[in-house]
PQQ-dependent sugar dehydrogenase
Amino acid sequence: MAGGLGLALLAAAPFAAPPAQAQRVAGSGEVVRNASAAFRVTTFAGGLDHPWGAAFLPDGRLLVTERPGRLRLVERDGTVSPPLGGVPAVSAAGQGGLLDIQIAPDFATTREVYLCQAVQLQQGHATRLIRARLAEDATPRLDAVQPLLDATPAQSSGRNHYGCRIAFGTDGKLYLSTGDRYSDKMRAQRLDDLAGKVLRLERDGRPAEGNPFLGREGARPEIFTYGHRNPQGLARNPWTGSLWEAEFGARGGDEVNLLRPGLNYGWPIVTYGVDYDGSKIGEGTSRPDMEEPLRHWEPAVSPSGINFYDGDAFPAWKGSLFLATLNTPGLLRLSTEGDRITGEERLLWGELRFRHVLPGPDGLLYLLTDETRGRILRLEPAAP
């Protein structure tokens, strides 16, 4: 069914669009026609339980995490492997589990992969970063599994807001997002606490050289930015080298941010959203010493994984930032120029909860559905 919203130029900070028509085509092969492109949605792979993170290997195969704690290898024809061995145990309760995955920039020689998970510690639950090696001498599996960092203090109450996205910068450093863990919002503001932050790390988990709080008493040296709520989106802009982040607000106030070292992004002191009971959070919507988001939404769209599109299959989408959204479910496209957002388009709106979006080496766009019987959908160009 054709439908969706055309490109809306951004005149004001919050986006208030008329309702988009639901497009009941996900995985059906039917053609969708929007203002920017005509595309067909097909099911590339299925049989996955809440797929959360994914990373393409140099040979075009895809590593995919399932939140309950499994890792799969998807062949180029969409065949899904049995669960890989060597995956460490996770705490798969609430919003926790096996979450993001990224391969090392030099994977072709090192075979290194990085995973993020929720883990049970003696003091409670925390976000954990892991490094491993993908071995394939007999059957695919992880070996040399090594925990690198726990986003402590661990929290005994609540199993939500782990963050848990991984990205590599142009500097070769590893960036990891951590959530505020929900129960105590002010953890995001405390510099002696790794919750509610984006961390910048060496590949062995040490604080990266040049971090903004290195040597500062009472501050964790891993911190790159702070004041984040639940950042499940993290991506490098391939044209400028900057790092972009997306995070959930409460009721409204979802954000896309341009990350700069040492800056405070406000949560929970400033936010454009309100609490779930409708009450005010913090002091208001802005403060001079805290960073404004590039974009925020009211009502919520609940952005999870994000990625920039630099493929050739959809020329009109080149330079866009895509966001997988959960509520309202769908796919958001933000057109960009440098480090500015210039427009917004809503695709497949009101259809399916998407946990992640990533471009493939074939120039097509891949979407992970947030379902017990989860799928990987593929967007392919169709004749206009």
Notes: Residues 42-372 form a domain with the Neuraminidase fold (CATH 2.120.10.30). The first helix runs from residue 107 to 110. Residues 1-22 have pLDDT under 50 and may be disordered. DSSP finds one helix and 26 strands in the chain.
